[in-house]
Amino acid sequence: MANDETGRDAPADxxxxxxxxxxxxxxxxxxxxxxxxxxxxxxxxxxxxxxxLMVFDTANLRSLILNSExxxxxxxxxxxxxxxxxxxxxMGAAVMALPGEDRGDSGGTRERADNGFAGLSxxxxxxxxxxxxxx
Length: 135
What we know:
Strand order of the largest sheet: 1-2
Oligomer: single chain
Radius of gyration: 28 Å
Structural class: mainly alpha
């Protein structure tokens, strides 16, 4: 037991739960939660894709895997490859979909669109050819 600010004894795990680090501190971070949720979405999609490949026997993949000496190894390797690809894609899409920081005077010259379509509010007229005399 450790003393807290009031002088009372607090449970030992209470000090860990209020610390900024640790598992609770990690889950308190909205960016980590975003990544973890999208990783889980990617993992779910990976399992579904692997199941679809096995059910529909795409390119005789199920037959090839089940006729091997150890069918678990190719399944694990295929699932691992799918998870790397699809979890990364889901997490990357989530990060890229985050809104940008609006700093006010960021120095950029691009105008922001009011209707939500960036770049469409400040359309410039098409370029016109200009006659130039050759010497």
